[in-house]
Amino acid sequence: MDVYSLHQLIIRKGKLLDTTPEFLSFKRTYIAKWGSISYILLLLEKLLGQSSVDLAYVEGRKVALLVAGDLDLNKPSNEELFDCVVNKDQVGKQIKIPSLMFKGHEGPILAATAIQKNWRMHKARVAYTYLRFLMEKATVIQRAFRLFLF
Is 9 helix (H, G, I), strand (E, B) or coil? Predict the structure, then answer.
């Protein structure tokens, strides 16, 4: 029965639910490669936890294929980990992977908007820092003048 199971694992708020029957079936099926699979699942938990994803469904077979395809046990990229997620449309809105954020028809427009946003924020921060510097110097001059008048 374990062979025909879908093996959809659930990660809720950055934690893998390891008490579900699907997870237990997945673990029984791939017990020979469990060390590598648990490392991949830990990386998925970390990626989804950092992005504050509430609920993600992970396809166990893709995780197993990711382990089988990587004989050197190199750390998989975030794109490869994201490929294991089943509900990509919901998770993709919350997760921040730069190479995936600017894909598609409107990708160049979104990239240009992000660059403009960061440049304007930088310019505003520099202007505000300079304004604070000038206000401090004006305060020093005003205190000295008031002391002179007194």
Answer: strand
